Amino acid sequence: MKSTDIQKIVETKYENGDDPTKIFRDLAGAVSLPTIKLWIKMINTTGSITLSSPPDCPRTIRTNAAIVKVKNCLSRKKRASTQKLAKDMKISRTSVQRILGEDLGCKPYKKTKQPKLTNLQKKLGGLNEKFFDLDGIYNSQNDRVWTINREEVDRKGGFHEKTKYPGKAMVWLGACAEGLTTPIILENRTMDTEVYINEVLPIALESGDRMLGSDWTYQQDGARTHTHLLTQEWCAENFPDFISKESWSPNSPDLCPLDYSLWNELGQCMNWNRMTTKATLIEEIKRSVAKVDNKNNFISVLDFTIRLRIIKKMEKTIFIT
Questions:
Q1: 113 within domain boundaries
Q2: What is the Cα 138 distance to its own chain's centre?
Q3: Is 245 exposed, middle or buried, given 0-12, 13-18 or 19+ CB atoms closer than 10 A?
Q4: How far, in Å, CA of 78 to CA of 283, rounded?
Q5: What is the span of the domain harbouring residue 41?
Q6: What are the protein's GO molecular function terms (predicted)?
Q7: At what angle do helices 33-46 and 3-15 cross, to 10 degrees?
Q8: Tens of pLDDT along 260-280?
Q9: SS3 label, residue 133
Q10: Do 294 and 176 form a contact (C-beta atoms < 8 A)?
Q11: C-alpha 115: how far from its chain's center?
Q12: Average pLDDT over residues 188-199
C-alpha cells in the first residue's frame, strides 16, 4: 500500500471518530503511532495531511559544468561515442546518456545513407556517375548523432554518403606487442593463395623476426587462403611456430586484435578529407599506420589472452587478418 493511501485511511478513520491508538491497531503497524498522531495534528491544524517534500540533494555528477561539457562536444566536428565521452569525463556512461536525454533533450539518431555526388555532378545534370572521392568508415550499429530532433541531425551533417563503386584497396597488416608490421597493399588484386604465400608470408616472417626475435608464434584466421594446404606447409617449414588450422576457430573476429580494435584505430588516424583517388587512399594508409598509438596497440594485444582462454598463453604472438 502506498503512503498516500495510508494517509487517506488515517484521515477517514479519524473523521469517523477513531482515536490514534485504534487507528494504529487497525493498520496493524503499517505506520507508527507517533506518525499517526503527527498526521492527526496536521488534520486539526490545516484540515488535511500535508507533507513537505525533502529538499533536492545537490548534484555531484550531472553538474552544470558536466552538462556544458557534453553540450560542447555535440558542436564539435569530430564526434565521440557516449562510452568515450564517459571515459574522458570520468563519469558513468549512464550519466552521460541522462545528460544527453534529460538535461539536453537529445535523442540518438542514426545517420541517413544517401548517394554521394561530386562537386561536378552537383553543378551539372544528365551525366553518368563519376566518383572523385572515396567513402570513409561508417559503423551503422554504433555511429549516432545526439540531437533534439531529426531535422537537427540533418543540419549537423548526419549523413554518410556512399558511392556506388568506391575505389578500394586490400590491405594486409600484422600486429604484435612491439607494434604494427609493414603494410602490404593490393591495389587491383584480391588475396589468393599464391599471392598470400609469395608476397605476404615472407613479409610476415621478416617482420616477426625483426620485432620479436627468433621465438614467436604466427597466428592467422580461418580464411581459405590461410587454411590452404600449401599455406599450412609453408608456415610449418618457415615460422618458428604457428597455430595450425586445426587449433584455431574458423570464425574468430573477436579473437584478433586487428578485428576487434586496431582496424578502427587505423581508420581514426586517417584523414578522409585528403583522399580523392585510390592513389591518395594508399598514400594515406601507409602514412597512418605509423600514427597508430603504440599504447593502444599494446593493450589490444594483451587483451588477446583474455579473449582466447582455450589456447595456451603466449608471450610473443603476431596476428594477421
A1: no
A2: 12
A3: middle
A4: 22
A5: 3-46
A6: nucleic acid binding
A7: 70
A8: 677 778 777 877 677 677 788
A9: coil
A10: no
A11: 26
A12: 84
